[in-house]
Amino acid sequence: MSGIIGKKVGMTRLIKDDGRVIPITVVECEPNEITQIKTTEKDGYPALVLGFVKLKKPTKTKKFKLQREFRIKDDETDSYKKGDSLSVESLKEFETVTVTSTSKGKGFQGVIKRHNFSRGPETHGSHHHRRPGSIGACTKPGRVAKGKKLPGQMGSKQVTRRGVSIELLDEKKNIICLKGAVPGAKDSIVIIKTN
């Protein structure tokens, strides 16, 4: 097993027996259906294609809301069949996972919010309050250097967290609780891969 697709429910906390409080993110993982099994002979590499959330009105080409590919080992292809379901139970043996999701979009932002710049003086006729300041040299090179921290689109990017520990698994409710924050808003799609 190399991964599963889920939906972020939100954040809460776990209180351990020794009194420690651990922040957790709850991810609901409905059983994922295997829609395709890729093999080295046919496709050049072994992988499973999983479907997440069946559409109410499926078409010939699209039956699931989302499909993702997960790499597996060559000798594992025989243990899976098309149409089988994979649930949270398959992650039982793992302690940590890699989580990928799309971060919250924050629109067009200035340098103070986007890059944590300090603001300029407030008084004595200063016109430099929240501006980025000088952005380039003179005649040479006569342009703004690539990668310069400037205002622009913030968030709404794919973010991956590695080594996220699994704190709780509920097979009946199809819920997995991960330590700490997982990128994205509530109800956003979360891809969980085994390390």
Low-pLDDT residue intervals, each spanning 5 or more residues: none
User: Approximately what portion of the residues adopt beta-strand conformation?
Assistant: 35-45%
Instruction: Please tell me the overall pLDDT.
Output: 91
Reading the helices and strands in chain order gives EEEHEEEEEHEEEE
Please bin the fraction of helical residues.
under 10%
Question: Secondary-structure map with pairings?
Answer:
Blueprint: E1 3-15, E2 21-28, E3 32-38, H1 40-43, E4 47-54, E5 64-71, E6 85-86, E7 96-102, E8 105-109, H2 111-115, E9 152-155, E10 158-170, E11 175-179, E12 189-194
Antiparallel strand pairs: 1-2, 1-12, 2-11, 3-4, 3-6, 4-5, 7-10, 7-12, 8-9, 10-11
Briefly say what this structure is.
With 195 residues, the protein is mainly beta.
Can you tell me about this structure?
By secondary structure, the protein is mainly beta. The chain folds into 2 domains: 1-30 and 89-114 and 150-195, Elongation Factor Tu (Ef-tu), domain 3 (Beta Barrel); 32-54 and 63-86. 5% of the residues lie in helices and 44% in strands. The protein has helices spanning 40-43, 111-115; strands at 3-15, 21-28, 32-38, 47-54, 64-71, 85-86, 96-102, 105-109, 152-155, 158-170, 175-179, 189-194. The strands form 3 sheets. Strands 1-2-11-10-7-12 form a 6-stranded antiparallel β-barrel. Strand 1 (3-15) and strand 2 (21-28) form a beta hairpin. The longest helix has 5 residues, at 111-115. It is extended. The relative contact order is 0.27. The model has no long low-confidence stretch (mean pLDDT 91).
